[in-house]
Design goal:
five-stranded antiparallel β-sheet; about 120 residues; mainly beta
Length: about 120
């Protein structure tokens, strides 16, 4: 994925991707940055829950590489697609989640708790 292609996707809604080894970027209609160093050393990545019902897990270290992986846990009404990254040599070395316009917000958790 190139930065130019990412800009085009972001203009039509919201995109989610990882960068460096500790940041998750949310850009477009909904914007934010999640600092989560060490997600590759944890069993679970970052949980993101969006206003359309979509739930994603974002984790650094896809297949023991330097790629951010995005896993769809639940598909909401506005999730368009997840573009898979296969090379850590790409300009954007991350899977990219793409949402259509209409998101109102999102929440995230870096630690997944469990009720007993």
């Amino acid at each position: 994925m190139t930065k130019a292609k990412l800009e085009g996707l972001k203009a039509n809604g919201t995109v989610i991707y990882g960068c460096s080894d500790d940041l998750v970027e949310v850009e477009g209609e909904v914007q934010g940055e999640i600092d989560s160093y060490g997600s590759d050393e944890k069993e679970r990545g970052i949980l993101l829950v969006f206003s359309d019902g979509t739930q994603l897990e974002v984790k650094y270290g896809k297949g023991d590489s330097s790629i951010w992986q995005i896993t769809v846990l639940k598909t909401g009404t506005l999730l368009k697609k997840v573009i898979s990254c296969e090379s850590d040599e790409d300009e954007i070395y991350s899977d990219v989640a793409v949402f259509n316009k209409g998101l109102r917000g999102a929440v995230y958790a870096t630690d997944w708790g469990k009720f007993k």
